[in-house]
């Protein structure tokens, strides 16, 4: 491996995205250490060192000693610890800190209801940027992925495909294009960043496995499930936005999923497109494979 980055610590190693990232880093030959909370119940892959610690700057600096890079892929509950992780990484001499994005990046055009969730993330990104500006030995990268497509299709029937009951909900006319990155692509994105630290320093990269739409996915689901008749229902993103907004305004849960799905499929808005073409993405730089709807659907059904 030509990269000067060899030892990588990961926060959130057993999470939804931390799991494929950890596997990809190990497969690519990086020496991976998981850093986890004292109270964590997470289960880590056999054979990787695990450091259990409280998330203060002092303790995290000790935990990160000797690491070349750190990846922050904690879930929403951990975002508040990210500034301490960044301070500790710099203090420990970590060269690259991958900030927690795995969403739509700094240019996200998400609906305003998401502003409050986005604010502490952006504060941590700004903090990393300021640290990198002041200290040339420290750098950061953000990895935007758009829709985590194979994981999301399997997990959220509200995305329009109930894979156990073979029911599809097509929003509007089903032609709104959006970009997705598979779990494999997410893992490869992190390997790509740490393999090419110069090209990926102090910026957000755009991962992408494909550009697709609901109608293409429906065809792929139908051809991947012979013998099953898909029931096709129709819904409108406008109604979904109204539902989500009403829940948000009255403090009810469920608004996030409503609005995430609506903004992915809303016609004419393009909010679900991170990179309209492969060339506009960093997929080639990072070594992420282009995938077809058929390949993605196979993974969602596995
Ligand atoms: N683009 C999208 O549509 C999309 C979808 C889902 C997620 N995401 C984003 O992707 C990132 C990773 O999400 P994920 O779903 O992989 O996360 P996750 O599986 O929910 O959690 C990952 C890890 O976060 C750590 N964690 C949880 N609560 C914490 C706390 N209070 N303090 C510190 N650490 C905590 C835990 O690690 P330990 O137990 O080891 O401490 C957990 O295993 C997040 O930024 C999330 O918002 C984006």
UniProtKB/TrEMBL annotation:
Entries under SUPFAM superfamilies matching the protein: NAD(P)-binding Rossmann-fold domains
Domain (NAD(P)-binding): residue spans on this chain: 12-148
Domain of life (superkingdom): Eukaryota
InterPro entries documented for this protein: NAD(P)-bd_dom, NAD(P)-bd_dom_sf, NmrA/Isoflavone_reductase-like, PCBER-like
MF (Gene Ontology): oxidoreductase activity
Family: Belongs to the NmrA-type oxidoreductase family. Isoflavone reductase subfamily.
Matches recorded under PANTHER family: NMRA-LIKE DOMAIN-CONTAINING PROTEIN-RELATED (PTHR47706:SF9), NMRA-LIKE FAMILY PROTEIN (PTHR47706)
Protein name per the record: NmrA-like family protein
């Amino acid at each position: 491996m030509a990269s000067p980055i060899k030892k990588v610590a990961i926060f959130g190693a057993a999470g939804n995205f931390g799991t494929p990232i950890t596997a990809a880093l190990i497969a690519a030959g990086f020496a991976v250490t998981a850093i986890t909370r004292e109270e964590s119940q997470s289960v880590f892959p056999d054979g990787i060192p695990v450091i259990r610690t409280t998330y203060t700057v002092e303790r995290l600096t000790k935990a990160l000693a000797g690491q070349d890079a750190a990846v922050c892929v904690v879930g929403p509950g951990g975002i508040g610890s990210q500034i301490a992780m960044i301070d500790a990484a710099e203090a420990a001499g970590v060269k690259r800190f991958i900030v927690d994005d795995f969403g739509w990046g700094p240019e996200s055009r998400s609906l305003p209801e998401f502003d409050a969730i986005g604010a502490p993330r952006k504060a941590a990104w700004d903090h990393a940027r300021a640290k990198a500006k002041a200290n040339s030995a420290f750098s950061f990268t953000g990895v935007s992925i758009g829709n985590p497509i194979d994981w999301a299709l399997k997990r959220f029937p509200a995305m329009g495909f109930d894979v156990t009951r073979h029911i599809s909900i097509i929003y509007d006319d089903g032609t709104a294009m959006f970009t997705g990155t598979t779990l494999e692509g997410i893992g490869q994105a992190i390997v790509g960043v740490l393999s090419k630290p110069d090209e990926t320093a102090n910026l957000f990269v755009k991962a992408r496995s494909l550009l697709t739409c609901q109608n293409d996915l429906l065809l792929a689901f139908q051809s991947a499930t012979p013998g099953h008749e898909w029931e096709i229902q129709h819904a409108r993103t406008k109604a979904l936005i109204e539902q989500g907004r009403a829940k948000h305004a009255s403090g009810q849960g469920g608004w996030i999923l409503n609005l995430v799905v609506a903004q992915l499929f809303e016609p004419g808005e393009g909010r679900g497109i991170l990179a309209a073409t492969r060339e506009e993405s960093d997929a080639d730089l990072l070594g992420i494979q282009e995938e077809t709807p058929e390949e993605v659907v196979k993974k969602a059904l596995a």
